[in-house]
Amino acid sequence: MNIAKVKRTNLTIGFLFILCVGLIGCKSKKLQAVVTDTLTTGTIHISVDESFKPVIDEQIKVFEDAYPGAKIIADYKPEADCLKDILRDSLTRMVIVTRGLTRKEEHYFKDSLNYYPRWDELATDAIAIIVNSNSNDTIFTLERLQQQLSGKRGKKDQIIFDGLNATSTVRFALDSILKGKKFDTGVVRAVSSSQAVLDYVAANENAIGLVGISWIGNPEDTGQVKMLNKVKMVYVKCDKCIDSPYVKPNQLNIMTRRYPLVRGLFYILKENYSGLGSGFMNFLQYERGQLIFRRAYLGSSKMGFAIRNVKINEKLDQE
């Protein structure tokens, strides 16, 4: 046998072995580099429906205070853009919107990621109808609102949305109020955000605004209390109420669905290991997160809060 040939063969095998080990090592390091977070540490990006900014800001603040090694970077935007992020953007770990995934969307994830994302309802929210503080027009029905949105009640009043395209409030109005009919664009006006809806209605007596309740329904938020000096929430007809034919979107009426403009608040989590997205999701679902939703005067979807009728100053039976 040719000794030189054997040496060349051994060198080739040795080189290939070193190359394979190097590639495996690199791949191993690459895999380790992908997972940089745990349930309570690391940094992630989430996209959130802008309608829920006040309450989600509070959730993130409390979570980060509890876990100093965690950083949740929230990007607030219209609902459709949030859903695009979770479908197409590899950086976005979670979205918080007003619906879960469709079967088609679930299969898309399964085909592209080889797992199904987790999603569930976290709380119940309501869309408040607001008018200027000087307005006497404070009694609404869904039929009346439908007629106004479709332009059948004239064009004197402007109905203000947090954007005409792709927001959850617009989608709710089209699906649940107009039942698939179209807006009259001569009546409907779009502004840039929920805060802009409040500001516009505060400045215009003939404006009617639709805004998520977490922007205006918390009596413990000093900013919201001040805004209620400039705008006010209207009463909406409750078809299933015996005691009161018209109701406001307070917490009791949201939780019992006496108020008709109620919607869910959902998370969609794109994570197949126990990372920071899972940790934040657990926080939102369990006691502390649910109490924050309750304190923001939304309805809880994960904890049962008792509703009791109480008479003030009622004397207890003496034994």
Quickly list its features.
319 residues; alpha/beta; D-Maltodextrin-Binding Protein, domain 2; 10-stranded mixed β-sheet; 3-stranded mixed β-sheet; 11 helices; 13 strands; 22% strand; globular; disordered N terminus
Describe this structure in words.
It is a single chain. This protein has 319 residues and is an alpha/beta fold. The protein has 2 domains: 42-124 and 263-300, Periplasmic binding protein-like II (D-Maltodextrin-Binding Protein, domain 2, 3-Layer(aba) Sandwich), CATH 3.40.190; 126-260, 3-Layer(aba) Sandwich (D-Maltodextrin-Binding Protein, domain 2). Helices cover 39% and strands 22% of the residues. The chain has helices spanning 3-34, 53-66, 79-88, 103-113, 142-149, 168-177, 194-203, 222-227, 251-255, 276-285, 287-295, and strands spanning 42-49, 70-77, 92-97, 118-132, 139-140, 158-161, 188-190, 207-212, 231-233, 235-237, 246-247, 262-269, 299-300. The strands form 2 sheets. Strands 1, 2, 3, 4, 6, 7, 8, 9, 12 and 13 form a 10-stranded mixed β-sheet that branches. It has a 3-stranded mixed β-sheet with strand order 5-10-11. The protein is globular, with a radius of gyration of 26 Å.
Biggest beta sheet summary:
10 strands, mixed
H/E series: HEHEHEHEEHEHEHEHEEEHEHHE
Provide mean pLDDT, rounded: 87
How many distinct helices? 11
What is the number of E strands?
13
Low-confidence stretches: 3-33
What is the secondary structure topology, with strand pairs?
Layout: H1 3-34, E1 42-49, H2 53-66, E2 70-77, H3 79-88, E3 92-97, H4 103-113, E4 118-132, E5 139-140, H5 142-149, E6 158-161, H6 168-177, E7 188-190, H7 194-203, E8 207-212, H8 222-227, E9 231-233, E10 235-237, E11 246-247, H9 251-255, E12 262-269, H10 276-285, H11 287-295, E13 299-300
Parallel strand pairs: 1-2, 1-3, 5-10, 6-7, 6-8
Antiparallel strand pairs: 3-12, 4-8, 4-9, 4-12, 4-13, 10-11
Helix pairs in contact: 10-11
